[in-house]
Write the structure tokens for this entry.
Amino acid sequence: MKSKIINMAEYFKDAEDLMLEALFAPEPIADDGFSGQIVRRIRQRLWLRRLCITTALLLGCSVALQPTLALTGFIVHVLENFPGVLGISLDAVPSITMLAGGGALFLLTFVGLRLLED
């Protein structure tokens, strides 16, 4: 495999540098595609790991969604019945759907950023 890093010294080679480079250039080792197979397997495992982690994350969030919404509903119910609790007025509390939508957007943003990073 050839490196994709560009070195500025490669742009300013004279005839002696080119001759020495040709003299000491390594011959490629014939491996009958072994290196390509290894790289392909590593990439497949990496994508499989990403898929498994994403699937586990989505399944976990789907399982935790109902209790989270129930807890949020309970908190809103407590704030409706006791408006003086914690000094928070009911107008300052967002709706349950807004909280769930914001949480889902937050989760999708971080999953997307993680996928872009890899």
Q: What stands out?
A: DSSP finds three helices and no strands in the chain. The mean pLDDT is 80.
